[in-house]
Amino acid sequence: MSDVAEYPEIMPLQRVSLPASANSALASSVPCRPAARCSSCSLRSICMPQGLTPGELGRLESLICVSRTIKQGEALYRANDSFQSIYAVRAGSFKTVVMHRDGREQVTGFHLGGDSLGLDGVCSGRHSCDALALEDSNVCIVPFHLLEVMCREVKVMQQHVHRLMGGEIVREATLMMLLGTMSAEQRVAAFLLNLSGRLKTRGYSPATFNLRMTREEIGSYLGMKLETVSRMFSKFQKDGLVDTHGKQIRILDLEGLARV
After folding, report:
1. Are residues 192 and 171 part of one domain?
2. pTM
3. ∠ CA 248-134-223, rounded to 5°
4. Within this chain, do residues 51 and 167 fall inside the same structural domain, yes or no?
5. Distance of CA 111 to the CA centre of its chain
6. Domain range holding 189?
7. Could you tell me if residue 4 is inside a domain?
8. Per the domain annotation, does 5 fall within a domain?
């Protein structure tokens, strides 16, 4: 998922040496840089809790030691990597995927700026999926053991992490309902409405946006074949609900799409 807005200017990259115990996805050969200050980040209201005091905000900023740039198609982490950190998407977008035994890829989520990644590793100490960049992206890295310390001492931070974990449960339950009870037409409509709402929350246009994922990736997420996804987009265009040009989407009738 994505939007058409320009991303904040990025500071020059530099190399940061990390401990040998760090997640394999954060090897010292990976370009990193000092993390942007949370207090000046446009996504602060999405990825951070409200109500932090200036001192607590400064402490949180000190936890986020580096940020990392991930090129399109590269992995932030892989399934079975050791869990060390959670990540806040500062720019760009990601998909999370699991691999079937026969090698097929199942998309389990799309993640925008302000979203968190990596919570799948909390349960077992290892990541359960791959997180792959849909475009050149940037994440802030939050070492989980330091975040746990802050959660014990700052209640609003603890509540925020609980909300993030609860949100993951709701997201997975919603996906199961979507796959199990909705028609193909309803699935694609729900997907576009969800994306529209998330972009609106981030201050972008809820009606006109670019898709960073392919139709095939949308189909994998929705449990549909590529041909079915394409057919649904064509039907929506014919019905006057959306206008599509490649990956550019313009929602013409938001209420009509919601009634599908």
Report:
1. no
2. 0.80
3. 80
4. yes
5. 2
6. 182-258
7. no
8. no
